[in-house]
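Record type: ASSEMBLY
Status: queued
Input:
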Amino acid sequence: MTFYALSALINTIASIFLGFFIYFQDRRKLIHKTFALFCLAVAIWSYGYFMWQISTSAQTALFWLHILMTGAIFIPLFYIHFLLAFLDKIKEKKKILIFGYIILSFFFLLNFSPWFISGVKPKLDFAFWPNAGILFHPFLVIWFFYVIYAIYLLIKEYGKAAGVKKIQIQYILMGTIIGYLGGATNYPLWYGIPILPIGNWTAAVYLSIVAYAITRYRFMNIKVVLTELLVVVIGFVLLVEAIIPENLTEFLFRGGLFLFFCIIGYLLIKSVMLEIRRRTELQRLYQEVNKLSKAKSEFISIASHQLRTPLTAIKGYISMVIEGAYGKLSEKQARPMENVYQSNERLIKLVNDLLNLSRLEAGKIEFKPEPILLENIISNIVEELKINAEKKGLYIKMLKPPASLPKLMIDRDKLRQVILNIIDNAIKYTQAGGITIALKQLDSWARITISDTGEGITKEEMGGLFQTFTRAGAGANLNSEGAGIGLYVAKKFVEMHKGKIWAESKGRGKGSTFYIELPMIL
Amino acid sequence: MKKILLVEDEKILGEMYKAKFIQAGFEVIWVFESKEALDSAKKEKPDLIVLDILLPKENGITFLNWLRKEPEISQMPVVAFSNYDDPETKKEAFELGVKDYLIKTNYTPQEIVDKVKSYLK
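Status: finished
Output:
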């Protein structure tokens, strides 16, 4: 058997198989139906090609060439029908499709006449190559018209398409160009131009790429197709060998091998299908989770914005009232205003904490370190919170290191939030005495210590201190504000700096000390 | 007297900030939208723009893109202020040259005035 005959036989099996596979995937869809028709035309063409190649007489060769041409006539027509269905343009391009069916049916009817193929004669290595009849010339013009039109349609739609569709068009376009370029090489020899025909070599590539494109969005399915195809082709070869044995031993051996291969092939296909089912399910779940996470994140951002707007107005106007922008307040008026302002601040902090928490959970917080003097950050915060401490009659002092620490790689906003949160808590939970903040260098670490003379933390409370939605007992007794998110967020921010954060307390009423250690990296 | 262009679509907040800036001795032009803001920036030549980010129709980022393409006013200092705390938007705003991106709710009007003064020095 020549290579041409063998490749034609493989094309026949492959196109029948792909046609059935795509058709039975969804029998109701026009895309699937038209692709199956296209595969049928390729199968007829390939089988005709195979039989023509193994023909031993000019008469038989001519007969199979007519069969081959039956397939060849309908290949571009069914293909354009499939393309229009795929691009959802059947209604729009109805006329061009109807014209194709009429004109190509005309050629089909006259296919078996000598006007189409006038005869056969030896050309290149082929014993019976066809000669073009008078009707073959207009057929060729129509054939090329539909091929060029298909490529034009695909290029035009490629520009407009997006997402999966764009990828599918890209593949189909690639397959079309490869397939038809190869197909076009089959015709020059009809006119005596000695170009080697490679159409049936590229046909398999063409079919596979287009089938891949159809199932692109269900990419895994093609794996089953290819596995099944491989099993069928090998099985077919083994079967052919098994039914033409030279003796009984060979028959038993080859037959046994064929049966053994059938079992292995069945198990192989089954395992591939199982794996694909699992992967598809995982992929679906993954997409679902991603979608939910994105929706949640967007919701939190927008909700935070909506919540913050009225809080900004309250904060702004109350602060202006307190500042005396609308007339000086008496002491009796100032205190309730201050209480409203502080309550509003709690709400603002809660919104900020919830936003941070949601971003931390979504892994959407970016770490942006820059060389900064830690001492400056702490001094600014102490200065900022001094008024709050003094209002409660508390002292707040900062013990500077004996020698200045060098600049460290710090994300300013995040570390500021951590220190501010801890000092703010210290002021909140301290009724007498005050807060001392110290900064010093310990080997390759910068340590910030925030000590207060407040309510302290018990051993039981210590365990859940840096977890979400837990607050120390003192917090629960003295203040009902805060959702217990602040320290959790603080811990996460310190960890982003590759640092450590922890707290110590000798127990209830004995104050507490918070430690933050950051590596001295510049 | 320094001139401020305030771009703020929330009526309550706009009134509040306008009052505060006037009280702090600024001349204030208050607009609600990006297109209006661009026209005012060209016409009034303010010393600084205080720009909200979530605006009706075109947002503050679009406004910044327009502003930077206008040779006459492209170098005008801008302080973005918004309650939309989105890292991507913040990044874009800084890439378009804003001096700062303030989360409104974290600052009193006085603190915002102080920030603006510091950028006008």
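Annotation: The domain at 3-221 of chain A is CATH 1.20.1070.10 (Rhopdopsin 7-helix transmembrane proteins).
Annotation: Chain A touches chain B at residues 301, 304-305, 308-309, 311-313, 315-317, 319-320, 323, 325, 348, 351-352, 355, 359, 364-366 (CB under 8 Å).
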